[in-house]
Amino acid sequence: MKPETRKDEIIITAARLFKEKGYSAVTMRDIAKAMGIKAASLYNHINSKQEILSNIIITLAEEFTKGMKIIMNSNNNSIDDLKNIVDLHVKITTNNAFGMASLNNDWMHLEDKLEYYLELRKNYENNFRQIIELGIKNNELVSADTNLILFSVLSTLRSLYIWIPNKEDLQNTNLASNLSKVLLNGIIK
Amino acid sequence: MKPETRKDEIIITAARLFKEKGYSAVTMRDIAKAMGIKAASLYNHINSKQEILSNIIITLAEEFTKGMKIIMNSNNNSIDDLKNIVDLHVKITTNNAFGMASLNNDWMHLEDKLEYYLELRKNYENNFRQIIELGIKNNELVSADTNLILFSVLSTLRSLYIWIPNKEDLQNTNLASNLSKVLLNGIIK
DNA sequence: GTCTATAAATCGATAGAC
DNA sequence: GTCTATCGATTTATAGAC
C-alpha cells in the first residue's frame, strides 16, 4: 500500500490511526496532524470522514470477493481450496494490516455502503461454508459441525492483522504454509 | 449476568451497546435511553463513562486470570490444560458475550486501568505460551512455532463472543468439547 | 432516584483568503 | 493545496429542583 495520490495518503494514514483507536475515536484533526497539515485541508481531497472508512473497507472486501471467486472457479479439492483461502488472507493482510482492522472492527459504522459490505461478507462466508461442506461430503474433512469449522478457521484468519505486523513473533516466511498445517492438521502429535 | 443493583443494570446495558457500536460511538444518552431514563440520571450510580468500561473489562480480565491460575496449579498434562483453557473461554463468554466484545475491542480506551489490564493480558498469554512449550517439549504437541500455535488457538477463543450468541448456528451443548477437538486434532480426516 | 437546564469542550464540515 | 476562522451539532458531566 504505497500512497500514489494525496487521497491515498490520507486513507493510509487514517487506516493506521483507525487500527489504534477505532474509527469513532479518531478525529479528522488526528488524521491531519499525523500528516502535518490542518483538518480543513483534508476536505480538498476527500468529501467526508465516512468516505475514508468506506474506501478502506470496500476495497478490502472486494479483494476478498475477487480472491474467493478464483478459488471457487478452480477445480481443486477442498484441502487445496482451504490452503488457498489461508494464502489469500495472509497475502491481503500482509499488504494492508491496518485496513484489516477497520474491516473487522468498524464495518458497522459504514453508512451508504453498509448493505453492500454485508452482502459481500455473506457471500464470502457462504462460499467458504460450501467448500467445507464439500470437503466433509468427499471424506476429506472430519464430519464436525460445518459452522464450527467455519468459525474456528475464519476467526484465526480474521485475526491475522493483529499478529502479522509483529515480525519478531511470527516469521512471515512460510507463515501461510505453517498456519495451514496448524489449522488443517491440528496441534496434537 | 443478572443485574442486582442499578449500577449493574447500567453496566450490562452499556456492554450490550458497546458490542454493537464500540465504546467511543455509544453515548451516555444512548445508554440512558436504552434504560428508559435521562443521561444525567446515570451519574447518580456511576461516576463516568470510563468507569463503566473499566468495570466491564477488568472484571472479565480478572476472571481469566483466576481461571488460568487454577489451570496452572493443576498437575494435568498439556492436552488437558488446553482443553481446560477452551472450557474457560467458552464458559466466560457464554456468561457475558457482550462484555467480551469490550475486552477484545475497547481495551485501548481504558485510562487509569490500562496498565493493569495490559499486565493481566501479558501474564495470561505467557502462561498460555508456557503450557504450549511444555506440550511440545513432552512430545504431546507438534513442534510448530509456539507463537503460531498460541496465535491460532487464542484468536479463535477470543472471537467466541461473536458466534456464541447465535444459538442457531452453534449448538452450545458440547460446544467446548467439539471446539477442543477441532483446535487440537484439526479438520483433516 | 430522576428530572431540567446548562456548562465547557470537541466534533465534522464549510467559507473564503492566500 | 493549505491556511485561519467559524458554524452548528453533539459530547461528558455538573448543579440544583422535585
Please characterize this protein's 3D structure.
- The structure is a homodimer of 189-residue chains.
- Chain A is mainly alpha-helical.
- Chain A has one domain (49-185): Tetracycline Repressor, domain 2, CATH 1.10.357.
- Chain A is built from ten helices and no strands.
- Chain A has helices spanning 6-21, 28-35, 39-42, 49-73, 78-95, 97-105, 114-137, 146-158, 160-163, 175-185.
- In chain A, helix 1 crosses helix 6.
- The radius of gyration of chain A is 18 Å and the shape is elongated.
- The structure holds a DNA duplex (18 and 18 nucleotides).
Question: What is the element string of chain A, with H for helices and E for strands?
Answer: HHHHHHHHHH
For the record, give the distance between the C-alpha atoms at the N and C termini of chain A, rounded to a whole number.
39 Å
Count of alpha/pi helices of chain A: 10
Oligomer: homodimer
Spans of chain A of 5+ residues with little confidence (pLDDT < 50)? none
CATH class call of chain A: Mainly Alpha
- Strand proportion of chain A, as a percent range, falls in under 5%
| Helix proportion of chain A | 55-70%
Q: What is the overall pLDDT average of chain A?
A: 96
Number of domain modules of chain A: 1
SS elements, strand count of chain A: 0
**Largest sheet: number of strands, sense, barrel closure of chain A:** none
Most extensive interface between two protein chains, with residue counts: A-B, 45 and 44 residues
For this structure, what is the CATH homologous superfamily of chain A? Answer: Tetracycline Repressor, domain 2
Shape of chain A: elongated
CATH architecture of chain A: Orthogonal Bundle
Helix-strand category of chain A: mainly alpha
